[in-house]
Amino acid sequence: MGASQASEELFDISHEDGVEAPLTDDEIRRTVAFVLAEEGVTRPCLVSVSLVGDGRIHELNREWRGVDRATDVISLECERPDDPDLADGEPCELGDIALAPAYIERQAAGFGTSPAAEFTLLLVHGTLHLLGYDHIEDADAEVMEAREDELVSALLGGAGLGHVTTTRHRGAEGA
């Protein structure tokens, strides 16, 4: 299913003062809608995307994950689109994705990718987390990484990042 066939999505995109992303708000919306459509989501979904600085992502990482340092992306799942308690056509409050563009830009340089490509990868990564993907166990990481490879390649017109190892981001900070 292509992005143009996706169900209605409702987005709240916020920028912390002074924080700029390498993608426009429209590109962010299209990326999330593409992932949802490609994952077969037909229910309207509410998705919040916050673009924050290193200080705020550090606070969120400490509060929600117990990790006392900045990171690239954090996803907070609320509801699943297939939740049986949701009425037909009732929007799903999918969740929140917080991204730290300055952190991502530095990370991109370390991996030899562009800030826009790295940001796209992490937006796809965060959206997949909202849909239940995870990478704690090796088998789950392989599934998630393969799906990220497919989606990022499609989004970047075949000029993907090559195979992405989700845990590569943790290695950059020594975690």
TrEMBL record:
SUPFAM superfamilies: Metalloproteases ('zincins'), catalytic domain. It is found in: Cytoplasm. Zn(2+) binds at H125, H129, H135. Binds 1 zinc ion. Its cofactor is Zn(2+). The keyword Metal-binding applies. Keywords: Cytoplasm, Endonuclease, Hydrolase, Metal-binding, Nuclease, Ribosome biogenesis, rRNA processing, Zinc. Its EC number is 3.1.-.-. It holds the Pfam family YbeY. PROSITE patterns: UPF0054. PANTHER family: ENDORIBONUCLEASE YBEY, CHLOROPLASTIC (PTHR46986:SF1). Belongs to the endoribonuclease YbeY family. Single strand-specific metallo-endoribonuclease involved in late-stage 70S ribosome quality control and in maturation of the 3' terminus of the 16S rRNA. This is Endoribonuclease YbeY. It comes from Olsenella absiana. The lineage of its organism: Bacteria, Bacillati, Actinomycetota, Coriobacteriia, Coriobacteriales. The gene is ybeY.
